[in-house]
Amino acid sequence: MITIGQKFPSFSKTAVVSLEKGKEFETITSDFLTNDDNVWTVIFWWPKDFTFVCPTEIAEFNKNYGEFRDRDTRLIGASTDSEFVHAAWRTHHDDLRDLKFPMLADTSKSLAEDLGILEPNEKIAYRATFIIDPTGIVRWVSVNDLNVGRNVKEVLRVLDGLQTDELCPCNWEKGQETLTV
């Protein structure tokens, strides 16, 4: 599995960015991750569309979209389902209709495979979360088993810590003192 300190793999994938007719899809590439504007990226993966735990996580990331934006951080959601399945799910699920971030379609499973997050039997993605700095380097990885949803507040806490570029003690939260040596 790709880990901290490694460059996020190159990719070019279709994503659902809207439900407006004719504006549903956009291509997102790994070039999107690197920038001179000090913008970070959080990419989070879920196993399957039209399931039970996944929409709770996606909705929670969406609910906290402003928190990520306030931290100069882009959100990208992803699974190995197609862009058409993503669009259908968004259309038919109340909590997903108004998503503010793209749903990346890794239909070929090539990116999930490059990341090392494919579950070996069904070949679906684990619940993986990557925090990527503005140079395209992975700074944090968290992977949950298929049946346990992640904690979006913890993703924000770790992002806050990474963005301080200082030593953050256990249970540190934004606004608290960092360690000095």
Automatic annotation (TrEMBL):
Question: Which EC numbers does the record give?
Answer: 1.11.1.26
Q: Does the keyword Oxidoreductase apply?
A: yes
Please give the catalytic activity noted in the UniProt record: a hydroperoxide + NADH + H(+) = an alcohol + NAD(+) + H2O
InterPro entries named in the record: AhpC/TSA, Peroxiredoxin, Peroxiredoxin_AhpC-typ, Thioredoxin-like_sf, Thioredoxin_domain
Per its UniProt entry, which superkingdom is the organism in?
Bacteria
> Which UniProt keywords are listed?
Antioxidant, Oxidoreductase, Peroxidase, Redox-active center
Under PANTHER family, the record lists:
ALKYL HYDROPEROXIDE REDUCTASE C (PTHR10681:SF121), THIOREDOXIN PEROXIDASE (PTHR10681)
Q: What is this protein called?
A: Alkyl hydroperoxide reductase C
Organism name:
Mucilaginibacter limnophilus
